[in-house]
Amino acid sequence: MSEQRPGLAAYLNTAALTVLPQHLLARGMYHLARSHRPWLKDALIRFVTRQYDVDLDEAANSDPASYDSFNAFFTRALKDDARPIDSAPDSIVSPADGRVSQAGTIHNGRIIQAKGHDYSSLELLGGNRALAERFDGGSFATIYLSPRDYHRVHMPLAGRLTGMDFVPGRLFSVSDATTRLVPGLFARNERVICHFDTAVGPIAHILVGAIFVGSMETVW
């Protein structure tokens, strides 16, 4: 099956994001999402729930009106049995509740972004050449979180945190259409790189920001 080409709306949205003040918009959304005004946070929750068909039956708290802000709803917890996790010590589980958009092997320091597009692992890792060389020939997976998904990120396997890097950058959308239009998007967007030592070797857990999602909180 051939990959669907981005439509005119995708080109126009991407062009707009190129010139709009991305970080100013993100700061505005940061405050909007944390508002405790009932009419505002309830309207935002209703819009996202309907627009993206959010399944609240799997949430630990299924009452949308009881969340004290849109951000609390957006980062809601799930019921304990909502996502069965493989307990085998040699298993690797998905760290996020999204869809795997790309996965494969890092060849010659290049990672696939979309059909016909790749980007540099060196740039993705903030210019850390030694680390990029260490990961060459290793595996990668890109997981896309849509607005309907559970927005917490977990460890894919047991490991020890050895460091974190913040890399400033843009805040392009990370939708399928935009990843096919913006070269090197994930190496251009703002991101937090978490480094871990594990029984199978080093891993880099990279949290990539996006338009209206320019704030990430880590809890260890």
Describe this structure in words.
The chain is an alpha+beta fold and 220 residues long. It has helices at 8-19, 22-33, 38-51, 70-74, 121-124, 129-135, 176-179, 185-188, and strands at 99-105, 110-114, 117-120, 139-144, 159-167, 191-198, 201-208. A three-stranded antiparallel sheet has the order 5-6-7, with no helix packed on it. A two-stranded antiparallel ribbon has the order 1-4. Strand 2 and strand 3 (117-120) form a beta hairpin. It is globular and about 50 Å long. The N and C termini lie far apart (42 Å). The model has no long low-confidence stretch (mean pLDDT 89).
Write the layout of secondary structure elements.
Layout lengths: L7 H12 L2 H12 L4 H14 L18 H5 L24 E7 L4 E5 L2 E4 H4 L4 H7 L3 E6 L14 E9 L8 H4 L5 H4 L2 E8 L2 E8 L12
Antiparallel strand pairs: 1-4, 2-3, 5-6, 6-7
Query: Counting H and I runs of at least 4 residues, what is the number of helices?
Result: 8
Spans of 5+ residues with little confidence (pLDDT < 50)? none
State the end-to-end CA separation: 42 Å
Tell me how many strands there are: 7
* Fraction of residues in helix: 25-40%
Task: State the strand order across the main sheet.
Answer: 5-6-7
Q: What is the percentage of strand-forming residues?
A: 15-25%
